[in-house]
Amino acid sequence: MTAAAVQTSAQPAEPDMFGEQPSGAQPHEGLIFELHGTMAAAAEVRVKMPRDGIHARPVLCMEVRPAHGGRGRTLHAEQVYPENGREAAEAKAAILKKGVPVTLLTSLKDMRTILPHVQAVELTSSN
After folding, report:
1. I want to staple 74 with a disulfide (CB 3.0 to 4.6 A). Which of 40, 45, 55, 106 is the partner?
2. 66: domain range?
3. Torsion angle in degrees (nearest 10) through CA of 64, 68, 72, 73
4. What is the chain's pLDDT, residue by residue, as a tens digit (127 residues)?
């Protein structure tokens, strides 16, 4: 579906949504996931609160259709900006319209998978 690459010298472009601003050079933990696709809808900027509950941050929210193996599915992706980055996030959202080809790079460290159409939940024995 996508290609993965290890980039040990790459630095995060933005701070971790729930962490503090990075101080100095920090290597990525784990693999970097590279996804090629097309914007399934125009990007939006939203505001989210980190754990401290004090400093809201702008978040660029995207729905992306993978170029290979997506079979009509979309992925939700978010890029967190610093508190004062609303203008930069809005500028990026303005160019990320439906149909625009994109490449996303992300760490797999905090990746979540959401299953929105679970049809049944079965209890299993813990032998």
Report:
1. 40
2. 3-107
3. -50
4. 444 443 333 444 444 443 433 333 335 567 888 999 999 999 999 999 877 788 899 999 999 999 987 777 899 999 999 999 999 999 999 999 999 999 999 988 878 888 888 999 999 988 7
CATH code of 83's domain:
2.40.50
Tokens for 7, please give them. 């980039």
82: its two tokens: 């610093």
Q: Which two tokens stand for residue 107?
A: 């760490």
**Integer Cα distance of 55 and 110 in angstroms:** 20
Q: Which tokens go with 4?
A: 């993965």
Give the chain's length: 127
Task: Report yes or no: 61 and 43 within 8 Å, Cβ to Cβ.
Answer: yes
